[in-house]
Design goal:
single chain, 229 residues, alpha/beta, Rossmann fold, SIR2/SIRT2 'Small Domain', 2 domains, three-stranded antiparallel β-sheet, 19% strand, binds 2'-O-acetyl adenosine-5-diphosphoribose
Length: 229
C-alpha cells in the first residue's frame, strides 16, 4: 500500500465547533498567546494557564469529529495512512484514525513538572487541574502542551514520515508556526502535495490547493485519490 501522510491544523476541527487560533474571533484574539501558551507565561502565572486548558478540556467534551476527520479514516482502506497533527484535541482519535502523531501535545493529558516522562490522561468528569494538583508521587503537574519557546520533540519522527510519503496532504493550517509549517519541504520530488483550506496561505507552486472547508475538501480529496482504485 502507498503511504499517505496528512498534516492537520486547527481548521480541520473548526466545523466540529473548535475555534481556530488566528481567524477572526480565534482563540488568540481573546486570550494573549504569550500569557496562555508560552513557557514564560507559565512561569509568570501558572494559575491562568491551568484555567485556560481546563476550559478547553470542558469545551472539547461538547464537540464531535466531523466528516473531514472521518474521511481520513476512510482513506485507511486505500493507503497506509499517518496523521501528523498540530491540534491538541482528540478528534482524530475519536474518529478512529490509527496512526496519530501530536506535534503540539494533547489537551487530555498532563505531566509531572519534576519528570516529563510521567504523563497522565484525564478522563471526565475529572478534567480540571490547578497549581495545587499533585500526581501520585506528590509532584505538581502542567498541561501536556508544547508551549511557545519550547522545543517540539515529535518533529523528528514527523519529518521521517513526510520523507517516506507517497502522497502528502495539509489541511486547515495557516502555516505560520514552525517547525510544523516547514514539513511540506521534506517531500520527495514528484510526490503529489495537496493543501485544503478555505483561505489558503501562500504555498509553493508544486502544491495543489483545494480552497474549501475541510469537510468538502476531504470529500474532494477522496475522489481524487481513489479514482483509479
Ligand atoms: P490557525 O488558527 O493559525 O489557522 C487556522 C487555519 O484554518 C487557517 O488557515 C484558516 O483559513 C483555516 N480554516 C478555517 N476554517 C476552516 C475549515 N472549515 N476547514 C479547513 N480550514 C479552515 O491554526 P494552526 O495553523 O493550526 O499551537 O495554528 C498552529 C499552531 O498555532 C497551533 O497548533 C497552536 C497555535 O498557537 C499551540 O498552541 C502550541
Amino acid at each position: 500500500m502507498k503511504k499517505l501522510v496528512v498534516s492537520t491544523g486547527a481548521g480541520i476541527s473548526k466545523e466540529s465547533g473548535v475555534s481556530t487560533f488566528r481567524d477572526a474571533d480565534g482563540l488568540w484574539e481573546n486570550y494573549p498567546v504569550m500569557d496562555v501558551a508560552s513557557a514564560d507565561g507559565f512561569r509568570r502565572n501558572p494559575a491562568l494557564i491551568h484555567q485556560f486548558y481546563n476550559e478547553r478540556r470542558h469545551q472539547l467534551q461538547t464537540v464531535k469529529p466531523n466528516a473531514a476527520h472521518l474521511g481520513l479514516v476512510e482513506l485507511e482502506k486505500y493507503f497506509d495512512t499517518y496523521i501528523i497533527t498540530q491540534n491538541v484535541d482528540d478528534l482524530h482519535e475519536r474518529a478512529g484514525s490509527k496512526n496519530i502523531l501530536h506535534l503540539h501535545g494533547e489537551l487530555m493529558k498532563i505531566r509531572s513538572l519534576r519528570d516529563e516522562s510521567r504523563v497522565y490522561t484525564l478522563t471526565p468528569p475529572n478534567l480540571d487541574t490547578s497549581v495545587d494538583t499533585r500526581d501520585k508521587y506528590g509532584d505538581p503537574v502542567r498541561p501536556h502542551i508544547v508551549f511557545f519557546q519550547e522545543a517540539v520533540p515529535n518533529i523528528e519522527p514527523a519529518i521521517e514520515l513526510v520523507e517516506q510519503a507517497d502522497v502528502f496532504v495539509v489541511i486547515g493550517t495557516s502555516l505560520v508556526v514552525y517547525p510544523a509549517a516547514g514539513l511540506m519541504h521534506y517531500v520527495r520530488s514528484g510526490v503529489p502535495v495537496y493543501y485544503i483550506d478555505p483561505k489558503p496561505s501562500p504555498v509553493p507552486s508544486f502544491v495543489n490547493v483545494i480552497a474549501e472547508p475541510a469537510t468538502k475538501g476531504v470529500a474532494r480529496l477522496i475522489e481524487i485519490l481513489t479514482k483509479d482504485k
